[in-house]
Automatic annotation (TrEMBL):
<comment type="similarity">
    <text>Belongs to the ROK (NagC/XylR) family.</text>
</comment>
<dbReference type="InterPro" id="IPR000600">
    <property type="entry name" value="ROK"/>
</dbReference>
<protein>
    <submittedName>
        <fullName>ROK family protein</fullName>
    </submittedName>
</protein>
<dbReference type="Pfam" id="PF00480">
    <property type="entry name" value="ROK"/>
</dbReference>
<dbReference type="InterPro" id="IPR043129">
    <property type="entry name" value="ATPase_NBD"/>
</dbReference>
């Protein structure tokens, strides 16, 4: 397989040239805040950079935020995490700009595909994949295959209700959704509320936490505990075998994941049940590799 995988995030666009399941070249750039056309231009620029003086590329795979129709490649629903993204015709526009066949799916579902084939989900049957970054995303997989559902919403967890008010609203504007308490910006906003002073972003919260700032650790721990409490209902209702956590905030490591696991075990039924909470093995490469893996069917058609 020789394809390009692209992960479109709320703050950055990451892209990689993938040859036989490994990323051999990378590029990234900031996500434009000027609407879908600017994002398409940025993606096309990243693709052109990766194709320059490289092997022939067969197809382009895109992991896109929002509820994505994988057949038409159109974004059915999106929040303001990526302004102007609702209704974006991702497949058509990027095929026109790059001249490549394009496969499109939700970004967390792309991550799930990679973790199923190459990462932490191997050996588990029914898995919830969670991405904690600019927003909070989710995807299910069964038997190593991501599950979409009839309306492509399977695994969407950002708008699950939480028993508290977030320090930063969800991308949809409400402050009682999971994304309002567990996303990277929400953790940073919670720390600012505890510590006072000028607002800081998550990397600075992480730096202060590792330097011994108890308020930074408190903000991270509280987010992890709420995430675990909310997910416990899904674990019980769907009888999940494991939870895989990735995304930018996953770099917080045990400070975030241990509270998730403790809350999950405390709330899940039956009592004394233990559901593994696993860090995404592929980390930042997962969404890019997964996007490239989306093109497998396209490459098969062109052999």
């Amino acid at each position: 397989m020789t394809a390009i995988g692209v992960d479109i995030g709320g703050t950055k666009i990451a892209a990689g040239l993938v040859v036989d399941g490994a990323i051999v070249r990378r590029t990234r750039r900031a996500t434009p805040r000027l609407g879908s056309a600017a994002i398409f231009d940025a993606v096309a620029g990243a693709v052109a950079e990766l194709r320059a003086d490289g092997p022939p590329v067969t197809a382009l795979g895109i992991g896109a935020p929002g509820i994505v129709d994988p057949v038409t490649g159109t974004v059915r629903s999106a929040t303001d995490t990526v302004p102007g993204w609702h209704g974006a015709e991702v497949r058509a526009e990027l095929a026109r700009r790059t001249g490549l066949p394009v496969a499109v799916d939700n970004d967390v579902r792309a991550m799930a595909l990679a973790e199923c084939r190459l990462g932490a989900a191997r050996g588990h049957d029914l898995v919830l994949h969670v991405s904690v970054g600019t927003g909070v995303g989710g995807a299910f997989s069964r038997g190593g295959v991501p599950v979409r559902g009839e309306r492509a919403t399977a695994g969407e967890i950002a708008h699950l209700l939480v028993p508290t008010r977030g320090a930063k609203p969800c991308g949809c504007g409400r402050d009682d959704h999971l994304e309002a308490v567990a996303s990277g910006p929400a953790i940073a906003a919670a720390y600012t509320a505890l510590a006072g002073g000028e607002p800081v972003e998550l990397p600075e919260v992480e730096r202060r936490m590792r330097a011994g700032d108890d308020r930074a650790r408190q903000a991270v721990t509280a987010a992890g505990a709420l995430l675990g409490r909310v997910l416990s209902g899904l674990v019980t209702a769907l009888d999940l075998d494991a939870v895989v956590v990735g995304g930018g905030a996953a770099r917080l490591g045990a400070a975030l994941l241990d509270p998730v696991a403790r809350a999950l075990d405390a709330e899940t039924r039956p009592p004394q049940r233990r559901t593994p909470v696993l860090p995404a093995l592929l980390q930042r490469d997962g969404p890019v590799l997964g996007a490239a893996l989306l093109t497998t069917a396209i490459e098969g058609e062109h052999r």
